[in-house]
Amino acid sequence: MIDVVIAGGAAVGTAVAHFLATQPAFAGSIVVVEPDPSYEFAASARSAASIRQQFSTPLNIALSSFGIDFLRTFHRTVADVGLVESTYLYLASRAGEAVLRHNVEVQRRCGIATRVHDAAALGAQYPWINATDIAAASDTAGGEGWFDGYALLRALRRENERRGVRYVRDRVAAVVMQGANAVASIRLGSGDTVACRWLVNAAGTRSRDIAAQAGIDLPVVPRKRSVFVFTSPTALSNCPMVIDTSGLWFRPEHDKFICGTVPTDDREVAPDDFEVEHAQFDELLWPALAHRVPAFEAVRVASSWAGHYDYNTFDQNAFLGPTEAVPNLLLASGFSGHGLQHAAAVGRALAEYITFGKYRSIDVTPFAYSRYVQGRPLREHNII
Asked: What angle do CA 176, 178, 180 make, to 5 degrees?
């Protein structure tokens, strides 16, 4: 009998294992089931790997606040994860100004020193930006930035294995129930059966299938995001992660830039569809880049990749913690694009729940699955 089986060994699942393995009050066994130890197609490896405080949901802000502290400490004491501290710059037109200012008030109430700029102040702070159609913008003095998600994942996994966490290269093929209300074991693709006391479903875009095996309807689907790396003949001083009114986002990446947007046809895709939507750059991204930063009129695409969101179609927030119908099945899914930056905080929260039967540090109960059953969405408005 394994105490905790974690389905999915990318950032979230590995973070759960990390906080269990480093929790002095937990002495149980941990098995992480992950089909691809290279993580070639994991969202953690294909993410833009950025972290922000500028959410519209207080719980997401709390998760990010812990996340940036964790990254700073891990980067300083365990492994170089390429942490670059900067900020997100949100731009709003007249139509979007009220939402931006509302979100800023939420952030300030949560202790985040978010700043608001009018067009003149924006131009002074970022002189390379075209602010003619901007009514307001927000950024922070710190606590945001980007990092190497793949390096973080590999370092966390090494630490876990050193502490006795066992990684199994396989896939959860079936969940075996004891009656209707408890997980008894899992059956692997190899045919082996592993009995467990807890099952943590951190399988990302495949988490819906695992939940269904336990009788849980999980509204989480794969949605594709294409990311483009481009060069610019003009350098931009003090360039943050920019979130444009058009849906474009871009930021520096060493001597280049990366960018992306929400597809016009943002639909569910097959979990193995990683084909880059190349037309997005010419049709959506380049015009928006050239409009917002005149120096970007001469950019060139250097490379590209595609990754997936485990997208929660209900309210774009994660499902975390136990399901009432199956209490020993814990969810960590539906992050809708911010799973990597919240992995550490979620890992700590679920490790506390398994160990103590309750959350001690950050109460993630607002993200419980019960809100979906009861039809009470808790919507995150700052989805990128």
From this structure: 95
